[in-house]
Design brief:
The complex is a heterodimer of chains A (569) and B (194). With 569 residues, chain A is an alpha/beta fold. Chain A contains 13 helices and 20 strands. Chain A has helices at residues 2-10, 22-33, 71-76, 78-81, 136-140, 150-164, 189-202, 219-222, 247-256, 308-317, 408-413, 461-480, 546-565; strands at 12-18, 38-41, 102-103, 166-167, 181-182, 207-208, 261-264, 267-275, 280-288, 294-304, 345-351, 357-360, 367-369, 386-394, 420-428, 437-445, 451-456, 484-490, 522-523, 526-531. In chain A, a hairpin with a 2-residue loop joins strand 19 (522-523) and strand 20. In chain A, 57% of the residues are buried. Chain B is mainly α and 194 residues long. Chain B contains 8 helices and 5 strands. In chain B, strand 1 (65-66) and strand 2 form a beta hairpin. Chain B is globular, with a radius of gyration of 19 Å. Helix content of chain B is 52%, strand content 7%. Classes of the chains: A alpha/beta (569), B mainly alpha (194). At the A-B interface, helix 3, strand 12, strand 14, helix 11 and strand 15 of A face helix 1, helix 2, helix 4, helix 6 and helix 7 of B.
Chain lengths: 569, 194
Amino acid sequence: MNLNLKADKDQTYDAIVVGSGMTGGWAAKELAEKGLKVLVLERGYELKHVEDYKTAFSDPWEFEHRGKIPIVAAEEHYATMYFSAKEGSQFFFTNDKENPYVQKRPFNWIRAYHTGGKSLLWGKHTYRWNEEDFLANAKQGLGVDWPIRYADLVPWYNYVEKFVGISGQAEGLAVLPDSNFLPPMAMTAPELHLKKSVAQKLNRPITIGRVAHLTKPQPVHSAVGRATCQFRNRCTRGCPFGAYFSSLAATLPAARRTNRVTIVHNAIVKEIILDDKAQKAKGVRVIDQNTMEVRDFYAKVLFLNAGTIGSTSILMNSKSARFPTGLGNDSDQLGRNLMDHHLAIGARGDIDGFEDDYFFGARPGSLYIPRFRNWGTDKRSYLRGFGYQGGATRADWSRGAAETGFGADFKKKMTQPGPWKINLSGFGEVLPDPNNRFTLSNDQTDKWSLPQVVFDADFGENERAMRKDIMNDGAEMLEAAGFKNVVAYDNPVAHMGLGIHEMGTARMGKDPKTSILNKFNQVHACKNVFVTDGSAMTSASNVNPSLTYMALTARAASYAVEQLKARNL
Amino acid sequence: MNRRQAVTQVAWMLGGVFSAPTLQAMNRWEQIAKTTSAGTPTGKFLSETQHELMGRVAELIIPRTVSPGVESPRVESPGALDAGVPDFMDVMLRDCYTKAAQDIFLAGVSDLERKNFVTLSTDQQTALLKQIEADAQKSTNPTFWLITKELTLLGYFTSEVGVKASFDYQPIPGKFEAIKIKPGQKDFMYGNQA
């Protein structure tokens, strides 16, 4: 009896954070800095900042396949290979064969089961959402209304931006609110030409991409050991300089600094343990992914930050008399309204001239063209909008395969900078749709006997209508700037998931009858459980979501600590 | 059928660039759920004579160049053989190509074997490759020539000798800025292609 009590006590914390990625790192940092004793549970293996970036300094010739993935490995990983596709970063991506899922409709589920999670894979484009993003559902009668507005997030955007470190240019645009910026990255000559032409002829602004890279580290960054971007653009192999923001380089070190954080690896959270009487969570039940050992951990407050599908799956798997279809699922919205951004569409072209223009360094970022459709006086047949990322660069030696010729002159030509090429890739908003969902399988399980995730989602009519404009408008802008050989492209087999912006399966809302979480990311019906990753999103905007996840997490953590102190949790 | 384009755009948005062989490999990954690999994880893919023949082809695509001067010719820049391209081709064909692509490649090698390629004069070899290249231009499918050229370029321009002889290699540029090209400017290479 006594022994059991002691064991329970040893496994009891003030807060448990499930997941160590983009939002888990923030939850751990904020809760610990406010004095809580925090346990972080990471389902994957331990990955150490710098020392485990094994390929970060490898030269091209040090890779047996020069960066290409052998077929056998590609078969093991096949869904994620579409994105990673590199010998030097393969180990950051989760093996699909060992972690299977069901595709009722095609879905690319890209995962990173290790410390830092997908914060080591992200594209690092970092944008605030605008006021309209939080109003659109209510105005258009779609999904449910957000329980918060842009103004609620402004102080939290300000707060997280300074710690993240975002390079960018202030533009004063309502459609793309400015962040707190470090110096912007430069544009190449054809990019500046495009910016000028599109401003003059189409009255659309183009700015440099806002990216979470330290162009001028501040003391808050140096304090956790982060340094200036070296413009190697080898980010996918992990940044030994800590120049790009990841939980591994930034929030987890800050959390550890408090000496109040414990991280347990290989800990797959099976379910939340509910105290039926109090209608509160007591803790979580965890399976060790290697030993299969089952352990329970206890805390006053739980933060689910396992990634959208991960966090929602845990809620679904937490069944009880009170919640027969999953914790907090009184609204039957759990798993529904799965969103992503639709991409793999845009325009590209070549440009003559600028032969003397070149650039030094490999820029880990691109241009950004903010949304201009359904904005201001513009009105389209579809709802919402899209933006573009892209840029101009000079073709390298690999152009040679498509060119005729070989021999000494050909060889010499391939050592010279090739012609300028440009690409604009659209990022479109996906509407919330209750029939775009995932469920847990009734009969298929993984090797931990947990039910497999079943995806059943696709882009709808609105997205398809929007795609036409993404192509045409991209081509129009390139043509306005005098680019030639302009090709507008669409990829009809780009499925949901490829954007790695899965969102919305435990949405926030005002009404417990139609949403899972309240305005502070608390489960309506179980107040000491917070979900602050992409699951919480009520709509998807057309800009990258990570910054908003981070702001929501810091805000929820602050609220949770207040409520704990007031003995309300 | 255009998964490749999707991935290319994703690469673009991340600021990365894929080389031609990667793009070809992506075409392959589209089919991975349906087809299986050739399954020869170890051992040589090419026979000794095929290895020698492909070394000759690769060297014609990327030849070693020497400075003029009959008395003491000096190597100006290394060629495909100096960079170990035939061995690289062997590994890549074995590990990174589907059975279908391997078959296309092997048919092309066999054709050159039948024509006694290695015994021909340099001019005859060059003429034959030009013909093969011209025929390949007409095909919309991957050809022996495309695979050969991609592997030769990749093997050479990412090899240590190839990179150092060909480019201004900048593994740690430290900054990004727009500049003007200087006379005789070599292409920068940043080492992020793996």
